[in-house]
Structure formats: structure tokens, C-alpha cells
Specification:
about 25% strand, alpha/beta, seven-stranded mixed beta sheet
Length: about 300
């Protein structure tokens, strides 16, 4: 499924030579992601040896900036593994190079930095996923014959199938992927749990609605903000495919941040109950636990098959 980017799109990794960048670049390459370059101004001109998906050795060149990397390789996507204080500059650099898709894994980026970069990306026609997210994985199917893994989502627990998954939570993404591995997915997307993110739950549902291979969707939300309510309002008018949801945070105390920077109930707003009510009001069933959510999804698919 070409969810925001096609599987053959060349990928660069900003921060590839750091510990996290090295670890996850190796894992993404092993999953078949076409990584063509790294970016680190202090190590420009060098290269790093990795094992490719077919077991051979591949040398990934390192460039000083995104524009040089794009000019040399035709890169269309970037995965960002840089510390929070450098993340704004990294995003701006990728945006100005017109990298089509920028997946920002970094946690702890100031909200003001994210807001600036998301607005800049929109003006340049560039999409950001994240920050503070696990990224995006797409699975091969008969149409595209290939998938891609951009970020830190484990590819060994998932299989190809008809489900689309979008989530604010990385851990819960992995749990539902595992729960439903026997059915399989077209794509799994973690949008991130910060107060401002580059891609919303609603936009992910739009993409799944447009994809002919996706037959049903799972939405994982959590306390804080109103992204789930916005998605519900859009789904009521535009979504033809069934959606099943899970909301984390029913026991969260008001005024205390829980997990993600955006996971906080303030002034009685952003509660799990309010989100559940909004989803159920438009016919989206909400599970009480991840396991129950998976079972509801199975019931929905069985009903659609009859």
C-alpha cells in the first residue's frame, strides 16, 4: 500500500551514524527498506557497511546535508534519529531539500519546534510523520510486490493482509499487530503522541479509505487532545470501511501527563470517555482492552464476509 510513500522510494537516515541510527538502519535494511544514504556533517565523505536484505554487504555513503544526499541518490524519504535539540534543524534541512516524507522518531522535541516545522512542511508540500512516533511499515501485496519499514516498528511480528492500523501509541501498535498477525495488514502507522504531530489520525484514515487493499481499520487513541473526535466526525461522513478502536487512559488522573507529552486530561477535556463516546456515536465499536479490540475486529470481518 502506498501510504504517503511507495515502497521503492529511496530513503536517507538523518543521524545514521549514531547508536540508534546505526541499530535501526541495520534493521530497516534487513527488512528490505531501500536506504541509500546517511546524513551527518561531521562524517561527510565516509561510508558505513551494513548487511543487506539478501545477506550481502552494502556500503551506505554519508553526506553533509539532505540536499547533497538527495542530489546524489534521488532520496524521497528521510527517517530522523537525532537528539531533540538538533531535531528542528534536521527537519528544516529535509523540508528545504523537498524530501517528500520525513519520519521523525525523536522524543522530547519542544512543541514550538514541532509547530514551526509542521507549518513549514505544509508550505513546502512535504509530509512529516511524528515526532515521538514509531514510524510507518507497509506490507507487500499482489499490487506492489514490496513493502517498506521507516522507523522502529518491528517487522517480524506482522504479516501482509487486509487491515490498516493507525495509532498514537508505539507499544499498543505492536500489541495489536501481534494480536492480529494471522489476519495481517496493508500498513501500520504510528502518528506519535505529542500535542502537535505532522500527520493526524484523520489523515491516516483518509489514506486507508482510498486504498483498495485495505478492508478494515483499527484506530488506537489515548487521552489528550481531540484528534479522535475529529477522526470520528470525518469517518461518519466519508468512511465506507469498518473501523474498530481502542482508547488508552481510562484510569488516568486529571492534570497528570501519562506517557506521551500530549497524553494529559486538562479542564475535563481530552478524556478517554469523551473519545469513546464520540467514536461510538458514529458507529465505531471501542474495545475495553487491546485483546477485546482484536476480537471485535474479527467479529466485524466475519460479519462483512457473510
Amino acid at each position: 500500500m502506498p501510504l504517503f510513500i511507495d515502497a521503492q522510494a529511496p530513503v536517507i537516515v538523518q543521524g545514521m551514524t549514531g547508536h540508534q541510527g546505526m541499530t535501526h538502519t541495520a534493521r530497516m535494511l534487513a527488512a528490505g527498506t531501500p536506504i541509500v544514504a546517511g546524513v551527518n556533517p561531521r562524517k561527510a565523505g565516509s561510508s558505513v557497511a551494513f548487511t543487506s536484505a539478501d545477506g550481502g554487504e552494502v556500503d551506505i555513503p554519508v553526506f553533509a546535508d539532505c540536499q547533497q544526499a538527495k542530489d546524489a541518490t534521488g532520496a524521497r524519504a528521510s527517517v530522523v534519529f537525532v537528539p531533540p535539540r538538533f531535531a528542528k534543524a534536521a527537519m528544516i534541512e529535509a523540508i528545504q531539500a523537498k524530501i517528500e516524507l520525513i519520519v521523525v522518531i525523536t522524543e522530547g522535541i519542544p512543541v514550538a519546534d514541532t509547530a514551526y516545522c509542521v507549518a513549514l512542511a505544509q508550505r513546502h508540500g512535504v509530509r512529516i510523520i511524528g515526532p515521538n512516533c514509531p514510524g510507518l511499515i507497509t506490507l507487500p501485496n499482489e499490487q506492489n510486490g514490496a513493502g517498506t519499514n521507516l522507523g522502529i516498528i518491528p517487522d517480524k511480528i506482522v504479516s501482509s493482509g487486509p487491515l490498516g492500523l493507525v495509532s498514537k501509541s508505539g507499544t499498543l501498535t505492536y500489541q495489536l499487530m501481534g494480536e492480529l498477525a494471522d489476519i495481517g495488514f496493508t500498513a501500520c502507522l504510528g502518528v506519535g503522541g505529542d500535542p502537535i504531530v505532522g500527520t493526524t489520525l484523520l489523515e491516516a484514515l483518509q489514506s486507508f479509505e482510498e486504498d483498495e487493499n485495505t478492508k478494515a481499520c483499527i484506530l488506537i487513541g489515548e487521552i489528550g487532545g481531540d484528534a479522535e473526535q475529529e477522526a470520528a466526525r470525518w469517518a461518519k461522513e466519508h468512511m465506507s470501511k469498518p473501523i474498530v478502536a481502542y482508547i488508552a487512559g481510562f484510569t488516568a488522573p486529571e492534570g497528570r501527563q501519562m506517557g506521551h507529552a500530549g497524553a494529559i486530561v486538562s479542564g475535563g477535556k481530552g478524556t478517554a470517555q469523551a473519545k469513546q463516546d464520540a467514536l461510538e456515536a458514529v458507529g465505531i465499536r471501542v474495545g475495553k482492552t487491546p485483546g477485546q479490540t482484536a476480537e471485535i475486529l474479527r467479529e466485524v470481518l466475519a460479519g462483512a464476509a457473510r
